[in-house]
Amino acid sequence: MLDREIIETKERVESLRLRLAESDLDCFLVTNLNNLFYLTGLRSSAGAALINQDELLLIIDGRYVTLAEELAMSYWKTGLTVIQVKETYEDTIVEQVIRGHFNRLGVESQNLSVSRYRFFDGALRNKCEVKETVGVVEDLREVKGEYELSCLRTGGRLLAGVADKAVQLVAFGKSEREIAFDIDRFIENVGFECLAFDTIVASGSNSALPHAKPTEKRIEVGELVVLDFGGRYSGYCVDMTRTVAVGRCSDELIRMCDSVREAHKMAIESVRPGIRASDVDRVARGVLGRYGLADKFVHSTGHGLGLEVHESPRLAPSVQLERAGLDRTLRNGMVFTVEPGVYIPGLGGVRIEDDVEVTDNGYEVLTESRVNFVNR
Question: Is the same domain home to 342 and 206?
Fold first, then answer.
């Protein structure tokens, strides 16, 4: 870990402790593995953490003990204690909660299975109240620190370079799978750890499916081809989409492309601190509405980016966000996609997507490439 990274990691733990105090929780159990990495710096396929006002206990099995102890000694110095699992994670967690004499234990209800929750609730009955929580750590992850932003900026720049090459792959006669394979190689070869998700290449009527899978279908003249791809850089995900027109397209396809290009541009230009996430969505839908295509926009305008490719904040209609209490006020350091799209079954679809950082002065596009729409 870099110095800046470990400083930010420790600051996150202190921010979480403040939230626990406000929630009247004296201990918190982290089982979401992305949250575990966010708070400790350890990337693993299993693990948990118990956090209270005095201790941060990293509970880990034998596969990761050496790595965890090196992390604790080399970077944390103090403040992180490694606890090796004895028999099961559940038994070890219960043992540590009882040892700490805690009154109220918060658990991540969105990540904890019903069976695990029932186990903890039963094992701790009459000793500690088990309290379900939602989004305690995820809310902290919405605003990125400087180290996180540096990862996302670098990832965005690298992915923009991939985009400039990817659009050149689209040609008459090539299959969707061939193009997807080549895009994946580009992503792997420029410095990403791995793909952020399965690459989408969708042509012709397939492009009307927002999450289409690449097939053996071959590209034909007069079609639109949607390319959606992403990479993970230093643990952080970036994501972008470009649409390519192959040869001369119909007037209806051209109208779709024009509407999405304008909606994409206007939505990004609306981004600034202090507005609501739904305000950006409203701008995009307003543009598409002027083209008579608002009802063909079937997903949200954007989603947060970070340790996961889909996280908070979400840019969607206010009626959806307000119902769930998720219409966030945009703040400096938030990073999300802006990706309006139009999809007409049997005809085709268009989507243009970039990653945007909220800044003091408004916004910065992290995936700035030479083109957002290409005619081949």
Answer: yes
